[in-house]
Amino acid sequence: FRLTHEVLHNDTVARLGGDEFVVLLGELGRDPESASVRAGDLADKLRESLAQTYELQGTPVAVSASFGVVLFNSLTDNPHELLKQADMALYRAKAGGRNQVSFFDPALQAEINVRAETLRDLRLAIDRDELRLFYQPIADASGRILGVEALVRWQHPVRGLVPPIQFIPLAEQVSLIQPIGKWVLDAACKQLAEWAKHPKRSGWTVAVNVCERELNDPNFVAHVLQTIEAHGVEPSRVKLEITEGMLLGDLDATMGKMQALQARGITFALDDFGTGYSSLSYLRKLPLDQLKIDKSFVDDVLTDANNASIVRTILSLARALELSVIAEGVETAEQMQFLTTLGNSAFQGYHLCKPVPAELLPDSVAVVAPRAGESVH
Ligand code: C2E
Ligand code: MG
Ligand code: MG
Fold this sequence. Notes:
Elements: H1 2-6, E1 12-17, E2 20-24, H2 32-51, E3 54-56, E4 59-61, E5 67-69, H3 79-95, E6 101-103, H4 106-125, E7 131-140, E8 145-156, E9 160-162, H5 168-173, H6 177-195, E10 205-209, H7 212-216, H8 220-230, E11 238-243, H9 251-263, E12 267-273, H10 280-285, E13 290-293, H11 295-299, H12 305-320, E14 324-327, H13 333-342, E15 346-347, E16 356-357
Parallel strand pairs: 5-6, 8-10, 10-11, 11-12, 12-13, 13-14
Antiparallel strand pairs: 1-2, 3-4, 7-8, 7-15, 7-16, 8-9
Bound molecules: ligand C2E and magnesium ion (2 copies).
């Protein structure tokens, strides 16, 4: 009963004989990575559920179960072969000390282990003061810094400086993103308050990335306003970066929150613009201030005529909607110069400055003209 209780309607639970059961999961999706994560999560849930004490005629009885997991992706896979593989994985789980989940595929197993370990450490990261906020300047064509984007990193005691891509998506899956997001906003506002006293930096804005789960939190608006107030910073210096994917959910609710924050002076940028599914009507309706042209368009803007046209189109669209634009991921002087000729006036990328801790930020960035002889078309 406990087995069938946790699985989905379409899944199959069968007893092979003795104390061996088979659970067949459908609809785990096509992507082996996420399928393995989901299968692993479910196996863990079943393992925990089965480990709870039973009452047998008043006597508490404890049993534990070991799990062997094998993924398959086609109906042509030989069932006998699959069961054999699951059995091998099960054998490993038992050999590993029982009450465990083991995957047949060693690569998947390694991945699952890393994920579990990362999550365990990440839960402690804030208390252990392991998060770091880096800043990347956003500058105009002359190199004057207009503001910075705050980008989080995790200073892990063993792994070193972990980039956000290795823990932000994971944190988002398990609701760890809210405390991390709060930490980031707090650190960014604290930094803004310091820069407000600095003659060359008092005009800078700080952009903070926000994920869907954070925005969906019912306390999001109140929390952002409280944090800004607590640090006594000018709300118009705080910019929140959202992505197009976040607009696929409850658009009215999202819009309401954005409007409430915009009414207090906070601004919004649409990050990675051009990679998602923005409709023109969203763009017109949403209280946005800025589009950030995704790095993928900037990458081959010099060599791919399509990308140059896309950039040109985004710029004229932004002009029509009265939005400002930042080109992201600018890596060379040639790209910067060409983007300028297309009419772009704000830039972010390694060519100007990599993300660095606050104390290493320059007051302005040096822009070099493309070397003579290298023509820009
Ligand atoms: P993003 O918001 O689009 O940030 C831009 C990313 O591009 C940053 O990567 C930045 O370091 C990188 N970048 C900037 N210029 C260049 C360039 O010229 N070349 C190359 N190759 N890369 C460049 P990073 O810091 O690794 O962050 C990756 C993503 O993680 C961010 O993408 C953002 O979506 C997310 N992220 C970072 N910090 C936070 C955070 O505090 N909260 C949330 N929710 N997400 C965050
Ligand atoms: Mg961003
Ligand atoms: Mg981006």
